[in-house]
Amino acid sequence: MQTVIGLEIHVQLSTRTKLFCPCRADYFEAPPNTLTCPVCLGLPGALPVLNKRAVELALRIALALGSEVRERSVFDRKNYFYPDLPKGYQITHHDEPLARGGRFTFFVDGHARTVRIRQVHLEEDAGKLVHVGDGALVDFNRCGVPLVEIVTEPDFRSAKEARAFLQELRTLLRHLGVSSGDMEKGAVRCDANLSVQVGDRPGTRTEIKNLNSFRAVERALQAAEEYHRELLAAGETIAQVTFGWDDHADRLVVQRTKEQAQDYRYFPDPDLVPLVVTAEWLARVRAGMPELPRARALRWLERHKLTPAEVEALLPEPALANYFDRVAGELGDGKTAASWVLAELRQYWTGEEPPLPAEDLVLLIRKVGAGEISRTTGKELLAEAAQTGKSLPELLARPDLVQLGDEQALVQVAQEVIAAHPQAVADFRAGKAQALGFLVGQAMKKTEGRADAKKLGEILRRLLSP
Amino acid sequence: MDLNERPVHELLELLAQGAIRLEEVLADLEAAIRARDQEVHAYLALAEQEELLRDAYAKSQTLLRGLPIAVKGNICTLEFPTTCGSRLLEQYRSPYEATAVRRWKEAGGTVGGITNLDEFAMGSSTEHSAFGPTRNPWDLGRVPGGSSGGSAAAVAAGTALAALGSDTGGSVRQPAALCGVVGLRPTYGLVSRFGLVSFASSLDIIGTLTRDVRDAALLLSIIAGGDPQDSTSLPVPVQDYTSQLRPDIRGLTVGVPKEYVPGQLGAEALALVDRWKAVVEELGGRVEEITLPLTEYALPTYYLVASAEASANLARYDGVRYTLRGVGRGAAEMIAASRTLGFGPEVKRRIMLGTYALSAGFFARYYGKAQKVRTLIAQEFTQAFTRVDFILGATAPSPAFRVGEKVDPLAMYLSDIFTLPSALAALPAVSIPGGKVGGLPFGLQLIGPRLSEARLLSWALALEEALS
Ligand SMILES: [Zn+2]
Questions:
Q1: Does the beta-carbon distance from B232 to A270 stay under 8 Å?
Q2: Which residues contact A406 (CB under 8 A, 6 or more apart)?
Q3: Does B94 touch chain A if contact means CB atoms closer than 8 Å?
């Protein structure tokens, strides 16, 4: 028995405006029905006008997946009634999508897997129903928000693969700058279909709709797989059913059976003209493509000799990855950059912007490297700058730091310690090496830990040598 | 002084000369409305006279000097409800106005009132309005045609100087013919559809109903031109069609398709058509009998395409918004109840026809095939225009019929057989008064090649002058 899984992933594009109107697309937490206009409300007489930027972001996805972009694509109307669908139809690419074909390689337990992409197309999102009491309220803010639907071939063999694919796809989407990729905010939503094949005979497909987290995808597919295998083992036939996923109950819920299957009566939307992607336009989009995460990972592994763990930690967040690249580039030392970015800087990164400008981190790492300040001091300064927003160059310019950074000041501290601890000095001269450690410790205490311990050790050794 | 009976271009000239005052025009219009609209019922809503005057004063130095036009009830205005002649939109006020209306107002015009129509522009008699039928000013027992019957009747009755209508399969030209006024359907896409409530998006266009051809040119000059808010509008710059009018058809070839002058027109109408041909020759044109054999397929093609698009365009009226709401348990029942309650029988008929034509298993046989035939019909016209400069024929197969006469939907649909083919082919066409049949106006239709409006109106002007 072989499990066969295909995915349909809806990606909310991070355009400023909606797919067919000038309303703001970022509806998250906006008060209900504040981001609407006659077009996205489908008011009588209002007409859609295609957002070119959304097309460009969709093209980036298609190019990144190696899909063949079609010169001419046509938006269809998908007809169905639902209170959150103000026009009574959804505008979507259907018969003639934006792009067809393609493939995507990802890793499961360290092994590469490749699945084929069937098509990539654009469509508009619907609104949202908010159930209150025995009624419901409609929020149309989400109406018309641009979505790219990525449809895979049924190439997955397990729920685990589907999850791994989605995680890497999200990283790709973030690096392409086309979507926030936030599943918890609904920016990536997934429908799945699963069948279990016995021998050469294809199994009956089960659809699972609206999977809104990686966990839900994996759990729902595992549950569907069990359902199929149990029925097959019992010799029973499997009905064509569409399931939803109840996250709290951790189980599948029947949404509709085959008898209720809908006829969407697709036909070309006569309010729009065919979308023509010229070779020039496509070339411009291609030229503006950012480096893909896979290429970036390879570059880091080869040029910077990062470990796979470091790559995995740096890669998912494009902002962090870009930051690392800037620091590593300036510094010319990827290993050190990675260790500072991951071990020190990342913990303070909470908002959108980095907690410290990349050039400041470079400056700090250089000071530590040159022994002008200790690593401990470096960490403290980084923490202070990151948490208070104080400028790092200013912190570095503090007089006590400057003194400690220069040789003269350290020599003075070392001389004072030598004078204050004759016994230890004598022990050292008598060959007790650990006495030097004591002296360094005393010197560090005097400087409140700001001096570079290694450098102090050298100075003390020099002063005490005959 | 009956200034309400004068065309807009004449009034503008008289106003410019200071020979008349705007108040006089508005007063004559108001008097005509008071005297006639009760029986004609061309209007669904009227502007307050004081407001019109105030607007007019503010605009007295503009191109249109504050002159009002009437606007069909499926074109969005800010000032009036946009009901589309439907119960479903009885309360609906648009928060934005149509591009054509905005352009008219920006040129210094005003909106005098909203005219009646067949519900959602589906019909050929203006009997299918939820707010009662409009009557033909020539004979109150007869229909004004439709669906822009209110606009045509208002111009014919002298209760509007000119009007905007919409033409999907003949809804401007057929009522113009039945009411004895000029009705222009521009090339598809020449006038923005933004703010025109969609019936069949690939066929709908705003057209004009005017007292004469010069006014058609004047109105078109103001409302035409590409619109970034309508993806299907043509990127044609705004132009002055009036200054391009050359009433001269010498040396031109006029095609008269035999399918547009069938025997069943009757002796009187056929004699009229012969007179038109004679006039063409008197004016130095050449008449050529042609044939457009696909004409007979226009009716089924049109009803499949238009109804299919309408079935989706009208899905938005679901009871969730627009006030009218039926009662039902759950969303699906509520939506069904609202639509059952809100739509009239003709609208329901077309929604059902269109839904059927798009259904899985029937799509290729109906909608798909209709689109193919539509392409062939357009090609047939393109072919014809390689031999003739324009096409001439009757606008409608009969003059105005009696109210309640055509109960059979197919009989009603047949009153558009001469206007449907050019609509399917996206061509411009104009109906001008061609004489009388049975004492009632009978329309002459001219069809031109795509974007030939300046020439088409010139030819129409030549014939108008010769026939009057
Ligand atoms: Zn909007």
A1: yes
A2: A372
A3: yes
Ligand 1 centroid – CA B193 distance (Å): 18
**How far away, in angstroms, is B347 Cα from ligand 1 center?**
28
Query: What sections of A144-290 are H helices per DSSP?
Result: 159-176, 214-233, 279-287
Does the beta-carbon distance from B363 to A271 stay under 8 Å? no
Q: Among candidates A137, A195, A269, which has minimal Cα distance to B320?
A: A137
Q: Does the beta carbon of A33 lie under 8 angstroms from any beta carbon of chain B?
A: no
Active site annotation includes B171:
yes
Q: pLDDT tens digit string along A262-287?
A: 899 999 999 999 999 999 999 999 99
Is the pLDDT at A206 greater than 60? The verdict is: yes
Output the pLDDT for position B69.
Answer: 98
Tens of pLDDT, residue by residue over B247-266, are 999 999 999 999 998 888 99
Cα A244–chain centre separation: 26
Task: Find the mean pLDDT for residues B278-290.
Answer: 97
Strands A267-268 and A75-79: antiparallel
| pTM over cut 0.95 | no
> Which residues make Cβ contacts (< 8 Å) with residue B94, sequence separation at least 6?
A38, A43, A44, A45, B76, B77, B78, B82, B195
Quick: pLDDT tens for B176-185. 999 999 999 9
For B402, residues 6+ apart whose C-beta sits below 8 A from its C-beta are B141, B142, B143
Mutation to test the A interface, candidates B86, B97, B229, most A Cβ within 10 Å? B229
Beta strand B68-72 with B110-115 is parallel
In chain B the domains, ranked by start, together with CATH numbers, are 1-292+389-468 (3.90.1300.10), 298-365 (no CATH)
A79 vs B contacts (CB less than 8 Å): 311-312, 315, 358
Which of A45, A263, A265 has its CB closest to that of B198? A45
Residues B167-222 pLDDT 10s: 999 999 999 999 999 999 999 999 999 999 999 999 999 999 999 999 999 999 99
Cα separation, B196 vs B175, whole angstroms: 18
Write down the ipTM of this complex: 0.96
Q: Give me the mean pLDDT over the A71-95 stretch.
A: 97
- Tell me the chain B residues in contact with residue A44 when contact means C-beta distances shorter than 8 Å: 74, 76, 82, 84, 89, 92, 94, 197-198, 316
Q: Which CATH number fits domain A407-464: 1.20.58.1370, 1.10.10.60, 3.40.190.10, 1.10.10.410?
A: 1.10.10.410
pLDDT digits (tens, 9 = 90+) for A396-411: 877 666 555 567 778 8
Q: A246 pLDDT band (50/70/90 cuts)?
A: very high
Which of B177, B200, B143 shows the shortest CA–CA distance to B418?
A: B177
Q: What is the pLDDT of residue B468?
A: 87
Of A45, A88, A270, the CB nearest to B194: A45
Q: Nearest 5°: phi and psi at A81? A: -95, 130
| Percent of chain A whose pLDDT exceeds 90 | 69
Across the interface, whether the CB atoms of B228 and A267 are under 8 A apart is answered no
Question: What pLDDT was estimated at residue B235?
Answer: 94
Catalytic residue among B129, B171, B198, B233: B171
| Residue of A76, A81, A96 to mutate for B, most B C-beta atoms under 10 A | A81
CB contact under 8 A, A45 and B98: yes
B77 contacts on A by Cβ (under 8 Å): none
Assess contact for B426 and B369: CB atoms under 8 A: no
Residues of A in contact with B318 (CB under 8 A): 81, 83, 88
Is the bond preceding B147 in cis, omega lying within 30 degrees of 0? Answer: yes
Cα dihedral B16/B17/B21/B25 (nearest 10):
-70
pLDDT given for residue A259 in this prediction: 63
The average confidence (pLDDT) of chain A is 92
Q: Which one of A38, A44, A47 has the shortest CB-CB distance to B89?
A: A44
